[in-house]
Amino acid sequence: QVQLVESGGGSVQAGDSLRLSCVASGGTLETYVMGWFRQAPGKEREFVASLRWGGYTAYYSDYADSVKGRFTISSDNAKNALYLQMNSLKPEDTAVYYCAARERSRPNYAYWGQGTQVTVSS
């Protein structure tokens, strides 16, 4: 069973950048579909980005429309770490960000980190 620990959140100004990290233990990233989600106060948790490996060095990423062109999901497989580079941050990006993993054969994300807070002020 994989365990996930996020870090890198903080308080920034609109237009700034942050990079979130998620370190996995108890499992190898490439064997899962990895995702970032976020939950703002009073709102439901929403999908941000996902990453899955297609073999060798190929990988496939997907993004929510609200973050396309601003956020980039990536990984360092040697470190078993997942990242979310967030540029041009907006106040509406304020949320708790969660790293998650799901087994390729299952539709739901079963493994979640504890979350890291991102606050963007205008």
Describe the structure.
The structure is a single chain. The protein is mainly β and 122 residues long. The protein has no helices and eleven strands. Strands 2, 4, 5, 6, 9, 10 and 11 form a seven-stranded mixed sheet that branches. A four-stranded antiparallel sheet has the order 1-3-8-7, with no helix packed on it.
Keywords:
122 residues, mainly beta, seven-stranded mixed β-sheet, four-stranded antiparallel β-sheet, 11 strands, globular
Layout of strands and helices, then pairs:
Elements: E1 3-7, E2 10-13, E3 18-25, E4 32-39, E5 46-55, E6 58-63, E7 71-76, E8 81-86, E9 95-103, E10 111-112, E11 116-121
Structure summary:
The protein is mainly β and 122 residues long. The chain has strands at 3-7, 10-13, 18-25, 32-39, 46-55, 58-63, 71-76, 81-86, 95-103, 111-112, 116-121. It is globular and about 40 Å long.
Distance between the termini: 40 Å
Mean pLDDT: 95
Dominant shape:
globular
Major sheet? 7 strands, mixed
